[in-house]
Design a protein that fits this description.
Blueprint: E1 5-6, E2 11-13, E3 16-18, E4 23-24, E5 28-29, E6 34-36, E7 39-42, E8 46-49, H1 57-68, E9 75-77, H2 83-86, H3 89-95, E10 100-103, H4 105-114, E11 125-127, E12 133-135, E13 140-145, E14 155-159, E15 164-166, H5 190-201, H6 205-215, E16 222-224, H7 235-246, E17 252-259, H8 265-279, E18 286-289, H9 295-304, E19 305-315, E20 318-319, H10 321-332, E21 339-346, H11 352-360, E22 367-368, E23 373-376, H12 384-401
Parallel strand pairs: 8-9, 9-10, 10-11, 15-16, 17-18, 17-19, 19-21, 21-22, 21-23
Antiparallel strand pairs: 1-2, 2-7, 3-6, 4-5, 7-8, 12-13, 13-14, 14-15, 19-20
The protein binds flavin mononucleotide and fe (ii) ion (FE2) (2 copies).
Length: about 400
Amino acid sequence: MKNIQNITNDLLYIGSSDRKLSFFEAVYPVVDGVSYNSYLLLDEKTVLFDTVDKHCAEQFFENLKAGLEGKNLDYFIINHLEPDHSALIKKVIEKYPSVKLVCNAKTKQMLFQFFEFDFDIEQNFEIVKEGDSIKTGQHELSFVMAPMVHWPEVMVTYDKTDKILFSADAFGSFGALNGNIFDNETELDLNEYRRYYTNIVGKYGAQVNALLNKAANLEIKMVCPLHGVILKENISKLISLYSKWANYEPEIKSVLISYASVYGGTQNAAEILATKLAQKGIKNIKMHDVSMVHHSFILAQAFKYSHIVLASPTYNNCIFVKMEQFINEIISHNLQNRTFAIVENGSWAPNCANTIKTSLENLKGSKFIEEKMTIKSTLKANQEEELENLANAIVEDIKKGA
Ligand SMILES: Cc1cc2nc3c(=O)[nH]c(=O)nc-3n(C[C@H](O)[C@H](O)[C@H](O)COP(=O)(O)O)c2cc1C
Ligand SMILES: [Fe+2]
Ligand SMILES: [Fe+2]
C-alpha cells in the first residue's frame, strides 16, 4: 500500500526508510536505520526528485504511481547519482518512457557507468548547468551545482516559487523516519547529523563552503534533503553547524580522550587524566575506547572538540591497530586546527608517540602539547607529577585560546 505524506499542497514525500541495513555504504553502523527521501511535485507538469535505494523499490513505485494519480511523469530531476538515490532510475525510465531526465552533463556521463540501456534515452535528457531553471507551471525550479558535496556530479534544486531547497546529501542525517517527516515534529539528534556530515562529506570542507555561499543568496523556507527529516525550524542552526564543520572549527573548547588499551594500563592513565582535567575545571570531557566504539562516532567527536588526547600502546613497533585506524580516519577526513596531546605505552620499547605525531603534523593547523607522556606497562606513582603537568598543559592551552 502507498505510504505518502503531503509536504505542501502540491509536494509529496514518497521516500522510504531502511531499518534492516547494518552498515550504510558498507561502513557506517546505522542502528536507527536510514531514510532515502524522494519527492514528487504535482504542478502542471509532474516532477520527481531522485529515487531511493534498491531495497525500498517496491514501496517507492507504489508511492510514485499513487502520487501521480494516473498522470504521466514529465520531469525527473537527478540531483545525486549515488545508488542509494539512483538505484531505480532505469526502472523509472522504463515505466515512464517519455520522462525528461533533468541532470547535468557529469551526471549524464556517469549514468552510463551504472546502467546499460537496451533502448535509446538520448532524447530523454534535458541537460542543465548552474543557474538554469525550468518552469513546471506554478513552480520555477533552478539548479545549483554542488560538486563534491558528496560526489562530483551533485547538484541541488531550488524551488523559487515555494522557496524550498532540495539539498541532495547536504543537511541529511542517519536515522530512519518515524512517521514524523518534519523537524518541528520530532527531536533532532545532532550527534547523528554530525556523524553523517563528518564521515560522508567531512573531507570536502571547501566544497561545502562553496555551496553554503551560494545558498546564502537564496531565501530558504524549507530544506528537503535526501536523508532524514525535512527542515523548517532548524535551517539556520544547521547552516551554522555546517559552516563550523566545513571550516574545521571546533564546536567546543574541551577535551576528547581517545585511548586504546589491551591490558588496562593505558586506560588507567586516560581515566586519571580525565579526572585531573575535570578537577581543573574542564567540562564536557568525552572519552572513547577506540576498540569498542566504531570510528565513525569518534571522528564525529573529533570534529566537535578543540583538544584531542591520543593514548595508545605500542604495537609491533607501531601504533595500536585500532588507534592507527582512527588516526587514518582523522587524516583522510582532513581534520584541521586541532591540538593533540599524546600518551604512549609499551612494555619493552614504547615508541608510538613520534609515529602518531608525524602522522598528524601535516594536517593544517595541527598543534601538539609538548608534554608527551611515556608509560612502561602501567602508570607508576612517581609519574603522577608528569601526568599532572600534561593535564596542566592541556588546560593552559584551552584557557589561552578562550
Ligand atoms: C600484538 C602486540 C604487539 C606489541 N608490540 C609491542 C612493541 O612493539 N613494543 C612494545 O614496547 N610493546 C609492545 N606490546 C606491548 C604493549 O604495548 C604493552 O604491554 C602496553 O603496556 C599495553 O598497554 P595496555 O595495558 O594499555 O594494553 C605489544 C603488545 C601486543 C599485544
Ligand atoms: Fe551520497
Ligand atoms: Fe545519500
